[in-house]
Structures are given as structure tokens and as C-alpha cells.
Amino acid sequence: MRHMDMYKGSAVSFYCGFSTNKDNQKMQLKNFRMKIATTLLSEASYIKELLRSSQRRRYMD
Q1: In 18, 29, 47, 50, which residue has its Cα 20 to 30 A from 40's Cα atom?
Q2: What is the pTM of this model?
Q3: Could you tell me how far CA 55 lies from the centroid of its own chain?
Q4: Helix, strand or coil, per DSSP, at residue 15
């Protein structure tokens, strides 16, 4: 891609907090993915329950 051919990098250093050791990094990424999945699934479960309760109220009225 042409725009990447011209990229020279950034003068600002970036530290994301991940280990430089490959084995530790794999474990950190695995834990991070589990945290994200748990958050997304719990929010989806909450929204799903809200929809169900609103449908129940609609049919009860």
C-alpha cells in the first residue's frame, strides 16, 4: 500500500503493558481475551433479559 510505504514511524514511545517474554505474553493475551468476553457476554445477557421482560409485560397487558 502506498500510504504505508511513506510511513516513517512515530517519535512517541508506546507502552501497552504486555510482557516481552513470549510465554508470559500468551498468558496475558489469553487472560485479556477472557476478561473482554466475560464483559461482552454479561452485557449481552443483561440486554437479553431486558428484552424478555419487556416482551412479558407487552403480552400481560
Answers
A1: 18
A2: 0.52
A3: 29
A4: coil
Q: What is the dihedral of CA 47, 50, 56, 58, to 10 degrees?
A: -100
Contacts of 35 (CB under 8 A, 6+ apart): none
28: its cell numbers: 496475558
pLDDT of res. 1: 55
Instruction: Please report, for residues 14, 22, 43, 49, the alpha-carbon distance to residue 46 in angstroms, rounded to integers and kept in the order given.
Output: 35, 36, 5, 5
Instruction: Give yes or no for a contact between 18 and 28, defined as CB atoms under 8 angstroms apart.
Output: yes
Phi, psi for residue 54 in degrees, rounded to 5: -70, -35
Query: Side-chain half-sphere of 16: how many Cα atoms within 13 Å?
Result: 7
